[in-house]
Amino acid sequence: MSTHNSDDEHGKKMIAPIVITVLYIIYYIIYGTILVHLVPGIGGILLGIIPIVLAVTMIYVCMQRIDEIRSGEEDDLSKY
Length: 80
Known about the structure:
- By secondary structure, the protein is mainly alpha-helical.
- The protein has helices at residues 2-38, 41-71.
């Protein structure tokens, strides 16, 4: 039964990183789309790549955070 409670706690701790990641990705998509449409030619495309890289980085960081939560390392900062 304690495993079930642990899973619930881990699930609750994963909500915030996932929501923040989704919000940032939406922001980056909107921002990148605006850049591509406002700046003509290759410059717009190059500027549009930056939000894509940032979105991919956010996903990677979120996946790392979820792994930390699942492994029980969510309180690492309290050790220091």
